[in-house]
Amino acid sequence: YANSRNLSVGVGAASVGLALLLGLVLSWSLVRPLRRTETRLAEIAAGDFSRHVEVSNRDELGALAANVNRMNDELRRLYDQLEAESRHKSEFLATVSHELRTPLNAIIGFSEVLHEQMFGELNEQQLAYTRDVLESGHHLLALINDLLDLSKVEAGRMELELSSVSIRR
């Protein structure tokens, strides 16, 4: 009886130890790939599309890792495309703004000449029209300059100058 009892206790203890060992191995085979995938997803969320997650499992975890890698590649492609389109937009804004500003300055200059009556007298209605043209021209020029400034800011070619300002009521 004592030998049988010791054998049963030994087999039971060995079974429990083996079960714990198998449980540990199984949990590591699940936890390690999940942690790698979680780390990689955090890197992707931070904007790092430079590498892939490596999971050797051929089960659902392997499929999950393959999907994360496909998502990473697609996000990298879309991010690169978005950067190129943003660069093209900034270049377009700078070019169009410059091309609009040049003739607008001529319109404003000729309107000022007319308004100052350098080449002859204007009646009140004509003076009002030239004043409207000048005001509209200056307003449009301000808008175009704002577009140019915006494109410079987006292109990183404009630096801010910070200074203290006194605000009074």
3D architecture notes:
The protein has 169 residues and is mainly alpha-helical. The chain is built from three helices and no strands. Helix 2 packs antiparallel against helix 3. The mean pLDDT is 87.
Number of strands: 0
Mean pLDDT value = 87
User: Whole-Å distance between the termini?
Assistant: 99 Å
Global structural class: mainly alpha
Series of secondary-structure elements, N-terminal to C-terminal? HHH
In what range is the share of β-strand residues?
Answer: under 5%
* Rg (C-alpha, Å): 36 Å
Shape: rod-shaped
Protein traits:
rod-shaped, 3 helices, single chain, mainly alpha, 169 residues
Short description:
With 169 residues, this protein is mainly α. It contains three helices and no strands. Helix 1 (2-45) runs parallel beside helix 2 (60-115) and helix 2 (60-115) runs antiparallel to helix 3 (124-155).
Topology:
Elements (H helix, E strand, L loop, with lengths): L1 H44 L14 H56 L8 H32 L14
